[in-house]
Specification:
- The chain is of the alpha+beta class and about 425 residues long.
- The chain folds into two domains: about 1-65 and about 105-275 and about 310-420, Outer membrane efflux proteins (OEP), CATH 1.20.1600; about 70-100 and about 280-310.
- Helices cover about 70% and strands about 10% of the residues.
- The protein is built from eleven helices and eight strands.
- Helix 1 packs antiparallel against helix 4, helix 4 runs antiparallel to helix 11 (about 385-420) and helix 10 (about 360-375) runs antiparallel to helix 11.
- The longest helix is centred in the N-terminal third of the chain and has 64 residues, at about 105-170.
- The protein starts with a helix and ends in a 6-residue tail after the last helix.
- About 20% of the residues are buried.
- Mean pLDDT is about 85; it is low at about 1-25.
């Protein structure tokens, strides 16, 4: 009879394996390059930021335009002498004027320079958004992969324990199995099921974030396809700190944003000083009969006298803004240097921990898992040894997946903080 329930357990176990091997209908297996291409093609945040770039380029064109000339014409509305509206002939008066504003002190050029700097700023903001979203995509991609590896361990163990419980249920009351063993295994099964549910919730949360980055429908479920051999070859020693730091100085978009903001502050200061210089207005005029002579043609010029308003307040404010932007730039640069140095240290630490793992250990553990199940069914080992091994197998696999994800995540941090894909 003992052989009978062993056969039942093993038969149910392998049937469960085949059932769980079937993929979800809404699951899409993607490689990282495929996910990145989908992201670049469909993300609405990037599309919105691209429109901001186009909008600022249009403002450059606007800044290059000259002020429109001003045309004015006047005619007699009512003659009190003739008691007549709109008199004509020798009894009317017509005036015509044409004026053009001339911007002095290079105001137009300074406006163009500010508009061009704002275009660069918007472009850097676009690339900074791209850098941030790609970092989210890549870390979520690998996080899902290793969480799914952990979930498969729970799935295998839960399935095996469930088959044992089911087989025990068929033998209930026949005296072959002690009740306390059934209770212990059920308790372990319920514990695994609870942990597995929490893990699935975590996977769903990360999947949700990834879907938002990819801008896909809620029923889209990503199954990451990774190159484990390529990931295993990643080495933090491939790029020394000075190389990473130099790349960050040139490619960190948040640092470029800080530098461009300082440049815009300087350009605005120059523009505010130029506004202190009044603009010149040139005019041409014609007066039919309102002057000391008929058909008078005149030329004129006008300019404000800068006695009271010399734009002092705006100039002082713009100067203070330069100091504020420069301080923010130094702070951003210090942050960049710290980010790069710490991310490299973290990569070395995680890589060193990863190298302590014996590549054969996981496969040996996995092979022994099935042997332990068979030996327990044959009563060669106790229930305590059986459950202890299952728990150890789970803990070891989860730990290995965590170590591998932390290592890959450390390399992604280096890519993110340097603004360069050193590690792919």
């Amino acid at each position: 009879m003992q052989k009978k329930w062993i056969v039942l357990i093993l038969g149910s176990f392998f049937v469960g394996l085949l059932a769980d091997a079937q993929p979800h209908q809404d699951t899409v297996r993607l490689s990282l390059p495929e996910a990145e291409k989908m992201f670049l093609d469909s993300n609405f945040q990037l599309l919105a930021q691209k429109y901001n770039i186009d909008a600022n380029k249009a403002l450059v064109m606007q800044a290059r335009l000259w002020p429109n000339p001003n045309f004015i014409i006047g005619h007699t509305l009512y003659s009190g002498t003739l008691n007549k509206f709109f008199p004509t002939g020798s009894n009317d008066e017509t005036t015509v004027g044409l004026s053009q504003l001339i911007l002095l002190a290079g105001k137009r050029n300074k406006q163009v320079q500010i508009a061009q700097a704002n275009v660069r700023l918007t472009e850097y903001q676009f690339f900074d958004l791209l850098r941030t979203l790609k970092y989210t995509l890549r870390t979520d991609f690998f996080h899902i992969y290793y969480l799914q590896q952990s979930a498969s361990v729970y799935n295998d163990e839960i399935r095996a324990l469930q088959q044992v419980v089911d087989a025990f249920a068929q033998q209930e009351g026949k005296g072959y199995i002690a009740e306390k063993e059934v209770i212990r295994i059920k308790a372990q099964l319920y514990s695994f099921q609870s942990e597995y549910s929490d893990l699935l919730n975590q996977i769903n949360d990360v999947e949700s974030e990834l879907r938002l980055v990819l801008q896909v429908k809620p029923n889209f479920y990503v199954s990451p396809a990774t190159d484990s051999a390529a990931l295993g070859k990643l080495d933090p020693a491939a790029y020394p700190l000075p190389v990473l730091m130099d790349s960050a100085y040139h490619n960190r978009t948040d640092l470029q944003i800080a530098r461009t903001t300082t440049t815009i502050s300087q350009l605005n200061y120059n523009y505010q000083k130029a506004l202190a210089v009044p603009d010149l207005s040139l005019s041409l005029g014609y007066d039919e009969a309102g002057s000391f002579l008929y058909n008078y043609y005149g030329i004129g010029a006008s300019i404000d006298l800068p006695f009271f308003n010399r734009n002092q307040g705006n100039i002082k404010s713009a100067k203070a803004q330069i100091a504020s932007s420069a301080a923010s730039q130094k702070s951003t640069q210090a942050t960049v240097e710290e980010n790069v140095a710490v991310s490299l240290q973290k990569a070395f630490a995680q890589h060193k921990l990863y190298q302590t793992i014996d590549p054969k250990f996981y496969h040996d553990f996995e092979r022994l898992l099935h042997e332990v199940l068979i030996n327990y069914q044959k009563r060669n080992i106790s229930i305590l040894d059986f459950l202890d091994f299952y728990d150890s197998y789970k803990q070891n696999t989860l730990q290995q997946n965590t170590i591998q994800f932390n290592r890959v995540s450390a390399f992604e941090d280096i890519n993110y903080y340097t603004g360069t894909n050193f590690f792919n």
